[in-house]
Structure formats: C-alpha cells, structure tokens
Specification:
disordered N terminus; 2 strands; 5 helices; mainly alpha
C-alpha cells in the first residue's frame, strides 16, 4: 500500500511466468467484479500475448493458454473465498501492484500463491 522505489528485479523465465499469472488473475478479477463475467481461456491468452509484447517477450500459444488457465484458477479461488467487498479490494490491490513501485502485502501473498501454482503445475 506504499509507493516505494525498488531496484529493478532480475528477470527470470520463472519470474516472467509468475508475474504473468498474477497480472492475468488481476485482470480476471477486475473484469469479474466490473462486468460479472469471467474471461475465457482464449481472452486470457490474448491478454498474455499483449502483456508479453509490451515487455518485448514471447511465449508459445500453448504456454500462454496454460498460464491463462492457472490465473483463472487463482482468480476463481479468490472470488469464491472472499466477500464481494473484500474481492473488490483485492482486485484493486492486485491492479495497483502491477506498478513495480507499489507495495502491497495482499498482492505479495497472491504473488507467492502464483509461484506455488506454477510449481505445482510443473511437478504434475
């Protein structure tokens, strides 16, 4: 919840994937609370491509779809376990945390969950 100057983090393949799951989950929650509808897997994969292109990165469609699916799992889990008001707050914190200078403990815990989800998916 505080704006902080932070040094640029080293970009790793895993870090990009974790950040992408987080960003897509934030977008999914924002869309859900704003419009009452979940993004489709394809819409998530398209958002992933847009996000990656802004970062001058690229992932194959199959991997974007997989990460989109993981973000969908996280977003639905968050929405199912929180009240509407808490869900709106969480979605807001996640969207604000897309700015690297914004620090949120809520968003950090969800980023850790994205890392766990990615690790669990890789071990299957």
């Amino acid at each position: 919840m505080n704006r902080q100057k932070s040094p640029p983090a080293a970009v790793t393949d895993r870090g990009v994937r974790v950040a992408l799951i987080f960003a897509l989950a934030a977008e999914r929650l924002a869309a859900y609370y704003e419009h009452g509808q979940w993004l489709t897997e394809g819409q998530g994969a398209s958002l992933a491509a847009d996000w990656l292109s802004r970062s001058k990165l690229n992932l194959p469609l199959a991997e974007r779809r997989h990460l989109s699916d993981l973000s969908d799992q996280l977003a639905r889990q968050v929405a199912a376990t929180l009240s509407r008001e808490a869900g709106l707050y969480t979605a807001h914190e996640m969207m604000e945390s897309l700015d690297p200078n914004y620090h949120s403990e809520v968003a950090q815990s969800l980023l850790d969950e994205c890392d766990r989800l990615l690790g669990d998916a890789a071990s299957l």
